[in-house]
């Protein structure tokens, strides 16, 4: 693991104004119990079954969450970006593995101190509820994706979701994860993801300047496809 820590007591360049992104005015109370870590792509933050002693907030980059099934297959359960929390395990043990898709910076909070702030800081519990409600919605969205949607509908929905998370750049979507990651998230094969991505490009819905970047060329058609209303044949 390639990780470097930046003490919360030090106003590190590039991190001083981005810490505790999700907590607004409550952020100052979190600083004494936090530390910033920088991890390289592929580094594991924690593994399934580890003790959940730390709560992480993503400051930059992308984190992948996944579970390994008994037969060795992998189910990716989410891709987290700036402002999202990881490690709020209710039973005190991590229920999935979290690793870095890209270089990431995360703010790490001691779980015990973090939980004390729920009682001590006005409005903190309400803010935390908003964060966890977002996680619940993301889980519900994935249930829909894994349900009755076709491969093309799943991929269109996934690209639109990634665009929404990248506020202000919804027609220029960064997809730093591999095609295998996308396949394991959508319940498809790598071949199906690659073939469907190519078809979306050929039909003029998207452009693929690089494997890690998607340009939306026809948003209306992409949204119709995601909703199952498109007349396109895949």
Descriptive tags:
single chain, 234 residues, alpha+beta, Jelly Rolls, Arc Repressor Mutant, subunit A, five-stranded antiparallel sheet, four-stranded antiparallel sheet, 7 helices, elongated
Characterize the structure shown.
With 234 residues, the protein is an alpha+beta fold. Residues 6-18 have low confidence and may be disordered. A hairpin with a 5-residue loop joins strand 5 and strand 6. The relative contact order is 0.12. The chain has 7 helices and 12 strands.
What would a concise description of this structure say?
The chain contains seven helices and twelve strands.
Strand percentage lies at 15-25%
Give the averaged pLDDT, no decimals: 82
CATH architecture type of the largest domain: Sandwich
End-to-end gap = 42 Å
Order of helices and strands: EHEEEEEEEEHHHEHHEEH
- Number of strand segments: 12
Q: What characteristic shape results from the CA principal axes? A: elongated
List the helices and strands and how they pair.
Blueprint: E1 3-6, H1 27-30, E2 34-39, E3 44-46, E4 54-60, E5 63-68, E6 74-80, E7 85-86, E8 97-100, E9 104-110, H2 111-120, H3 124-145, H4 151-165, E10 172-174, H5 179-186, H6 190-202, E11 206-210, E12 213-216, H7 219-227
Antiparallel strand pairs: 1-2, 2-9, 3-8, 4-7, 4-9, 5-6, 5-8, 10-12, 11-12
Helix pairs in contact: 4-7, 5-6
